[in-house]
Amino acid sequence: MAPPPASLPSFDELPLDKNGPFANAWGLFGERDQLGMLNLLTPETVKAAATEIKEGVRVSLDWHLSKPVHPFFGRQVFYHHMHTKFPRTVNDDILLFNTQCSTQWDGFRHFGRGFTTFTFSLSPPRSLGNVVQLTVFTRKGYQDAKQFYSGFTQSDLEDTDALGINVWVENGGIVGRGVLLDYAAWATRHSIPVNPISRYSIPASHLRRLVDEENITFRPGDILFIRSGFTAAYEALTVEQEKNLPQRKESTLIGVQSNFEMARWLWENHFAAVAGDMPGFEQAPLWEAEVQLHQVILGGWGMPIGELFDLEELARECKRLGRNTFFVSSVPLKVIGGVASPPNAIAIF
Fold first, then answer.
1. Could you tell me the pLDDT band of residue 333, with boundaries at 50, 70 and 90?
2. For the chain, where are the alpha helices, taking DSSP H only?
3. Per-residue DSSP letters for 269-326?
4. Backbone dihedral angles phi then psi of residue 337, each to the nearest 5 degrees
5. Could you give the CA distance from residue 178 to residue 59 in angstroms, rounded to a whole number?
6. Which residues are within 8 A (CB) of 53 and not within 5 positions of it... i.e. 6 or more apart?
7. Contacts of 192 (CB under 8 A, 6+ apart)
8. Do residues 106 and 304 touch, judged by C-beta distance below 8 A?
9. Is residue 138 very low, low, confident or very high in pLDDT (cuts 50, 70, 90)?
10. d(C-alpha 191, C-alpha 271), whole Å
């Protein structure tokens, strides 16, 4: 783990590697770093986070591995078999699952980056009624360069264990101060209609308002959790609706808005990791988004993304205690060269 610099660059100072892709922070924690923003989880940061433990109340943040029943994005269903070792009265487990079929941390091997430039053409604009359409030109698609965090290539990942999720665990996991933004509850209070089972985009402006209204102050190295209400809405679906949801056209799903404003807000709060109860954290589909946050957050910054976290009990406990912050401990699977993992996460109040 590399010591963090005395000050962190602003979003406008990115990219740090001028030969690398848009908004990258490569080199911030040293050449070929493999921990990214998890370097902010220093002993001092974790020690300060431990002061959040006052009640001794523990809350699991993992959904059941068998949820959703029909995983999104074409992933395999969860399989569990209890193997009885006759004639002895002894049982073993056999599990077969995609590490991203349920609650998960996306690791730095999951999504690569490419080289992209953004040029906004206003000369001449195309007028659509009263709307002026801006044209975005890309020099190369995000995926074309096949680069991952710190400039590792697809070949590096195929030939070595670089960026494996085991590196996180070998450095103590994802442990620090968690902060919950209960967007679902906030939207209800403000009479903002939100359908979690839809392509609803959570804008950065709403998150800023929520933070201001609830007097939340972020610290570098915080672990962000956003509750959209997705898992609660999913639990209310019929069996037929559960089956049909992943099959909808383009898997239209709720998430944070995939644009420059959201990227700026996430970076300038210097989170160690970000997570939510949404299937993809950001809105889906994302292929035509202004900024594909997965590529910037994972490939550019080395910031883990958590998806499908079960935040319902956490939200209830935060409301009961009148708090947004808590101690969080997450120790992913120690798989050498692993791409992703269930978080095995708990919050402690």
1. very high
2. 43-49, 154-159, 166-170, 183-189, 204-213, 230-235, 239-244, 260-268, 293-294, 312-321
3. TT-SEEEESSSSSB-B--TTSSS-HHIIIIIII---EEES---HHHHHHHHHHT-SEE
4. 75, 15
5. 12
6. 327, 348, 349
7. 206
8. yes
9. very low
10. 29
What is the DSSP code (8-state) at residue 236? T
- Strands 273-276, 305-307: pairing kind: parallel
Residue 113 per-residue DSSP state: B
User: What are the backbone dihedrals phi and psi of residue 118, each rounded to the nearest 5 degrees, phi first?
Assistant: -115, 120
The residue whose two tokens read 């791409």 is 339
Q: Give the global pTM.
A: 0.88
Q: Could you tell me the two tokens for 227?
A: 């509750």
Q: What is the pLDDT of residues 159-179, one digit of tens each?
A: 999 999 999 999 999 999 999
Alpha-helix residue ranges (DSSP H) falling in 6-116: 43-49
Contact (CB, 8 A) for 99 and 341: yes
Closest CA to 218 of 181, 183, 179: 179
In a 10 Å sphere around its CB, with 0-12 CB exposed, 13-18 middle and 19+ buried, how is residue 74 labelled? Answer: exposed
**Phi and psi angles of residue 346, each rounded to the nearest 5 degrees, phi first:** -135, 150
Q: What residue has token string 């209830």?
A: 316
128's tokens: 């659509």
Tokens at residue 301, please?
């910054």
**Residue 158 corresponds to which tokens in the numbers above?**
């195929």
DSSP, res 198 = S
Determine the average pLDDT of the residues in 270-285.
Answer: 94
Comparing CA positions, the residue from 267, 257, 254, 256 lying closest to residue 296 is: 267
Q: 286's torsion region: left (phi>0), alpha (psi -120 to 50) or beta? A: alpha
d(CA 331, CA 97): 18
**111 dihedral zone (left: phi>0; alpha: psi -120 to 50; beta):** beta
- Determine what percent of the chain falls in helix, strand and coil, rounding each to the nearest 5: 25, 25, 50
